[in-house]
Amino acid sequence: MKHPSFLTQLKDVYGLQLLGAQIQRFGDGHIHQTFLIEDGVRQYILQQFNNSVFKNPERISHNLGILLDQINANELPFELPLPIPNLKGELFTVIDGDYFRLSPFIKGKCINEVNNSHQAFMAAKAFAQFIKAGSHIDASLFQEVIPGFNNLELRYEQLLDALSSTKRSVSGELKILVDFYLSQKDLVEEYLIWKKKLPLRLTHNDTKINNLIFSEDLTKVNAIIDLDTLTAGYVYYDFGDLVRTVACTESESSTNWNNIAVDQAKYDALFNGFLEIGAGTFTGEEIQSLSFGGKMMTCIMGFRFLADYLNGNIYYTIHYGEQNLHRSKNHMYLLKALRKMCP
Ligand code: GN1
Ligand code: MG
Question: Is the distance from the beta carbon of residue 208 to the nearest atom of ligand 1 less than 6 Å?
Answer without folding.
Answer: yes
